[in-house]
Amino acid sequence: MIKRHFAKSALMAAIVFGTVSQASAQQVASTDPAAVKAGTYKIEPYHTQVGFTLSHLGFSNFSGFFTGASGSLTIDPAHLSATNLDVTVPVQSVDTTVPKLDGELRSAQWFDADRFPSATFKSTRIVRTGANTANITGDLTLHGITRPITLKTRLVGSGTNPLDKMFTVGFEATGTIARSQFGVKQYVPLVGDTVTLTIAGAFELQQ
């Protein structure tokens, strides 16, 4: 796994320093939904992030993210309604780039990561909204509370990774939640109750 991560990092470095053109890198993936292979996929955690943004006292929109996600995606482009998505995200991974704030967010006043170490999302319904977009509705469990949310999702691309030869598919998704509905009420309404989620998801075909 470390070797694979190093190889992917090497490719990114090659792109940045010009030894691999950006156009060549983009040709690896297809944006055509028909190119997505049916099957069961596993989350590729190194390139999967859950970002969040909320108002800080009305002065700024402050952001952070979670990493280290795990889970699976079962999909058949010809029968999109049968898609099943199951994701687990470790709450301890929260990162705002401010270490003191990260520690506060893990505490009992916020996410209470010791009691509720994971957030999960399990899809219950998917509706195609365009050629490469869909709304995914599911149950989000956060801070020990489960509520339905809908994620607006777009296919980014799919294809065989030239480094590890794994067939990979990537999506981006957005949605909003009211954190107080999940029992995370610290400083509401001074610190915003509405949280915007921005998700980058990468999945590797298993079978």
TrEMBL record:
Gene3D superfamilies reported for this sequence: Lipid/polyisoprenoid-binding, YceI-like
Signal peptide (UniProt feature, chain positions): 1-25
Start and end of every Lipid/polyisoprenoid-binding YceI-like domain? 40-204
The record ties this protein, via PANTHER family, to: PROTEIN YCEI
Report if keyword Translocase is assigned.
no
Task: From the Swiss-Prot or TrEMBL record, give the protein name.
Answer: Lipid/polyisoprenoid-binding YceI-like domain-containing protein
- InterPro entries (UniProt xref): Lipid/polyisoprenoid-bd_YceI (IPR007372), TTHA0802/YceI-like_sf (IPR036761)
Superkingdom, taxonomy of origin: Bacteria
- Give UniProt keywords alphabetically: Signal
Species whose genome carries this gene:
Gluconobacter frateurii NRIC 0228
